[in-house]
Amino acid sequence: MNPKTTDRIATFVLYTIAFLIVSVLFGLLAYILYHGFQRIDLQFITSPPETMKAGGGIGPQLFNSLYLLVLTLIITIPLGLGGGIYLAEYAPKNKVTDAIRLSIEVLSSLPSIVVGLFGLMVFVNVMGWGFSILSGACALTVFNLPLLVRVVEESLRSVPREQKEASLAMGISHWTTIRKVLLPVALPGIITGTILASGRIFGEAAALLFTAGMSSPDLNFSDWSFTTPVSPLNPFRPAETLAVHIWKVNSEGLIPDARAVADGASAILVLTVLFFNLFARWFGRWIYKRLTAS
Prior knowledge:
- By secondary structure, the protein is mostly helical.
- It has one domain (38-291): MetI-like (MetI-like fold, Orthogonal Bundle).
- Helices cover 73% and strands 0% of the residues.
- It has helices at residues 3-37, 42-46, 59-90, 95-108, 112-126, 133-157, 161-169, 174-203, 206-209, 242-252, 258-291.
- Helix 7 (161-169) packs antiparallel against helix 8.
- The chain is globular.
């Protein structure tokens, strides 16, 4: 077989595989949205489950998912940036840093149920936070931190060496070079890693069953105190997220339209992840243009 024929066959196989993957993804997305749109309306999105007949809405669960996302990112991003910057710019090449990288690889492959049991033991019981949003956010931080650390490290290492050397040659300090030269150039990769971590937060259920709980109090959306038990912003209250709600509705089967509620909640979850990804990428490009000459 001559090289030209081999190249054509390989190209055809690769295009076929790509087409199959895209077809499966679009088919799954179309199936979820088609069945979910039959249930979605304004009342379903904004109302709590107990205020509607036959299953109710998902208002508190949607808010809990977004609040948990924000709280988790507030904890994860500074730690991930610090760890990635240390490994890329300050960590010496020795057995200790090799052990740290190996530990990060092991942690990134842990099953979510194991992270949930760890969170139950440490954050719920030892720390005494109980089933709460804060316990869930800390468990998800353990779950996502290895991913973000590796993404930040690889993004910083991918910056052309000449840019760093040029900055240092001008007498600029190492830390200022990291802030003003390396981080802005590495920002697109860091944004991509943050989006991946956010997607895992939206879709996680197993770890939250043991940390954030499977129920929510009757929230009072006119009370925005951080200490009131029924306040939406109270981080020490239990919180049922959309992913947990979908699992709960399907597993318990206590309502007559469980399938319709699950379909609607699944469609809302997919659309929320989609809109968040689009917004994060737009925001990342805007920040990148502001911090660089692009």
